[in-house]
Design a protein that fits this description.
The protein contains 9 helices and 24 strands. It has 533 residues and is α/β, with parallel strands linked by helices. Helix 4 links the parallel strand 11 and strand 12. It is extended and about 115 Å long. The N and C termini lie far apart (165 Å). The N terminus and C terminus are likely disordered.
């Protein structure tokens, strides 16, 4: 008796707390729109099963909040009688920073609020919308703090919160770095989860536990998060995953934990990862894999034997790998159901096929192949290449959607020829002259290696000779400066003294004495005259 009383008291307390929370929600304003269908687009139709479908498009209306109630036009006698109906509403392209609690409805709801600048989500968001099926909140500013377990709580009944019917959740292109361990405890029907383009560079224990708790998950997208590894037990309980996208991360080896999805995984995308090579046992155990994407790997050089040994494979996308020069098709011989093979825009020059393993009774190894893309490769049109194509049952190579087609790059005689114009019989019987064999195109003469080396040698010799000549000239000048042949400084004397000394040296002694006497007399006369004056 006491136990029942305590349980009833606890239920009433929880109910009062819930009522208080609801009261707080009522204080937040909603978008004031009187005639909703005059501002937004309201559409309604009935399908063949007499189910009503309503579409409310309020995209790019400069809203800051959502609407407080659904349009009156969405109500009809059939809905009032409990007939099933669906509402698809879009608030994308507005300025809604806070997504408030949605107005009550029993309809199957699909809500889109992309590119709104969302930063907060008001919990519980789906208290009065238990039948929500899809929620698209990509391209916003949601962080880890905006996601709490209370966010996805349904209506409170008896002693607990009811789960909601959410199946598709898109949280891509946000700022989420981690997830709460109990984030998805109220979403037991979740089948699609998109967490691409976030900041989940490391899946910590709580994040791995949150993802691993969604046992109904069938599609998981973790692309472009900077991931380098996956936790060992991430997929232990996820036995229903069919589609896994981990492209655009930093994986250098295939995560071993993928083997836990061997029986369920159908599509795997590893594109845009820095793999240098794919080992022979990379996909061992993925017996149900039908589609594999290993495109746009800038470092991928080789696919080891056994790497593509996938019996159930139907589509292989291996394109835009600029360093992939060789691909052996031996592994794909077991993929009898192959329908699409994309090998375009690589560095492939030939295809190698183990012809001895093909029996004469069954020469067509891929009877269901419908599309082969091999354009934009530097093909060497040899007998080996066309025999491989012929044994694969490929007799006609179609153009790509953009009009490009596979062409020969070598030998020179066939350069530029479309592969569709050639056959194995013609190539194997063709004699290619030696002068047409492939030669490496040399750069201009001044850029060739031998000319660069010769120029460097000549410049070095000229420099050495110049230094030697300069050294010799300096030594000669120094030697001449120290000898009699060197340049002496000019000595300046008076003109009179210089003339008399030279004249006296040239005349006899008598003439010189007379000249001196006369000169002395004139000097005395001049002096006397000057004195008399």
């Amino acid at each position: 008796m006491k136990y029942k009383f305590l349980l009833l008291l606890l239920a009433e307390t929880v109910f009062l707390l819930a009522s208080g929370v609801l009261g707080q929600h009522e204080d937040i304003p909603y978008q004031p729109v009187t005639n909703i269908c005059q501002t937004c687009v309201c559409l309604g139709r009935t399908d063949s099963d007499h189910h009503m479908h309503f579409n409310l498009d309020c995209s790019v209306k400069n809203f800051e909040h959502i609407l407080a109630r659904w349009p009156q036009e969405f109500r009809s006698p059939e809905i009032s009688a409990g007939a099933p109906f669906e509402i698809v509403v879009s608030y994308s392209g507005n300025r809604i920073k806070l997504l408030q609690q949605l107005p009550a409805t029993n309809a199957s709801l699909t809500l889109s609020c992309r590119h709104c600048g969302l930063q907060e989500l008001q919990a519980p968001l789906f208290m009065d919308v238990p039948n929500v099926e899809a929620l698209f909140l990509s391209w916003n500013e949601l962080s880890s703090d905006a996601l709490s377990p209370e966010l996805f709580r349904g209506p409170f009944r008896n002693t607990r919160y009811e789960p909601i019917g959410l199946r598709d959740l898109d949280l891509s292109h946000n700022r989420i770095a981690r997830l709460d361990r109990k984030l998805f405890e109220h979403t037991p029907n979740l089948t699609k989860l998109n967490l691409s383009y976030n900041k989940l560079s490391v899946l910590d224990e709580a994040t791995a536990a949150a993802i691993g708790s969604v046992t109904t998950l069938q599609r998981l997208e973790l692309a472009h998060n900077g991931l380098m590894s996956l936790p060992a037990g991430l997929f232990t309980n996820l036995k229903r995953i069919r589609i896994l996208d981990i492209s655009g991360n930093d994986f250098t080896v295939i995560p071993p934990t993928l083997l836990q999805l061997g029986k369920s995984l159908v599509l795997l995308s590893l594109a845009e990862n820095p793999f240098a090579s794919l080992k022979g046992n990379s996909f061992q155990g993925l017996v149900s894999l039908k589609r594999l994407n290993i495109s746009a790997m800038s470092s991928l050089r080789s696919l080891e034997t056994g790497a593509l040994h996938l019996p159930a494979l139907e589509q292989l996308e291996c394109s835009r790998n600029p360093k992939l020069e060789r691909l052996e098709l031996a592994d794909l011989l077991v993929s009898r159901n192959l329908t699409q093979l994309d090998l375009s825009r690589n560095a492939l020059s030939t295809l190698v096929l183990n012809i001895t393993s093909i029996t004469n009774n069954n020469p067509n190894i891929w009877p269901r192949l419908r599309r082969l893309s091999i354009a934009k490769n530097p093909w060497y049109c040899s007998c080996e290449l066309f025999k491989a194509l012929e044994m694969a049952g490929i007799t006609h190579i179609e153009r790509e959607a953009d009009g490009t087609e596979a062409r020969c790059e070598t030998p020179y005689l066939l350069a530029g020829t479309p592969l569709s114009n050639l056959t194995a019989e013609r190539i194997c019987s063709m004699v290619i002259p030696k002068k047409y064999r492939e030669v490496d195109e040399e750069p201009p003469r001044f850029l060739r290696r031998r000319y660069i080396i010769l120029t460097a040698i000549i410049a070095s010799v000229v420099l050495v000779i110049g230094l030697v000549i300069g050294f010799i000239v300096a030594c000669v000048r120094r030697r001449l400066k120290g000898s009699d042949y060197g340049v002496q400084p000019i000595r300046y004397t008076s003109v009179r003294g210089s003339n008399l000394s030279q004249f006296s040296q040239l005349q006899p002694a008598s003439v010189a004495s007379k000249f001196n006497n006369v000169h002395a007399g004139s000097s005395s006369g001049t002096t006397t005259g000057a004195a008399n004056a």
